[in-house]
Amino acid sequence: MVIWRRKIYRIFMGSLVPVVYLITGSVFFPLIICSFFLTLLLALELERWKNPGVWNYILKKYGKIFKTPPGKLTGDTYFMISTFIILLFFDWSISISSLFFLVFGDAGSGIIGSKYGKIKIFPGKTLEGFIGGLIFNFIISLLIYKFVELPFYVLMSGVVISSIIECLPLKIDDNLTVGVITATFMNLLNKFF
């Protein structure tokens, strides 16, 4: 598996929903896109469990993009579940920000960590990967700051929280935890401070 191919795929596909939300300002179209992909992924999961030969065929054709041990949901499925939750329960600015942090933090930590990672902080996680995720998220926060209606400190808290959660060895897939926890934290900080 080539990590940069998987991460480029994730950046392109993962940015689709927040970009559409940013452009339209309405949750309707992002929810339609998310619902379509979530339905497609859940159908794929069902087929994968019922007929492992189908999944083996997909891995042969697209193995550089997917990485999932048997018996677990794919990262893409967790990602779409997280996206759906965020779109339903959080406002425009929080949704867009946390979804971009989910996409770019994952890409930054994966690309930098796999290429330069030497200092292990958790199993499969390195200090260099953490810093890579932090840098990618910081750059995306600067790019979206003028468009989202959030104080700068709330946006920066999302950068830090999402990067920390990305590197923690949690039992739940980080495609689910990073976005939802970051959105929750940013929402609380925005409402109460």
Q: Say what oligomer this is.
A: single chain
Name the strands of the widest sheet in spatial order.
1-2
Q: What structural category do the secondary elements indicate?
A: mainly alpha
Molecular shape: globular
What can you tell me about this protein's structure?
With 193 residues, this protein is mainly α. The chain has one domain. It is 77% helix and 3% strand. It has eight helices and two strands, in the order H-H-H-H-H-E-E-H-H-H. It has a two-stranded antiparallel ribbon with strand order 1-2. Helix 1 (3-24) runs antiparallel to helix 5 (92-116). The protein is globular and about 50 Å long.
Provide a concise account of the structure shown.
Helices cover 77% and strands 3% of the residues. The protein is mainly alpha-helical. The longest helix has 25 residues, at 92-116.
Which characteristics define this entry?
about 190 residues; mainly alpha; two-stranded antiparallel ribbon; 8 helices
Q: Mind sketching the topology for me?
A:
Blueprint: H1 3-24, H2 28-50, H3 52-62, H4 75-89, H5 92-116, E1 120-122, E2 125-126, H6 127-144, H7 152-167, H8 174-192
Antiparallel strand pairs: 1-2
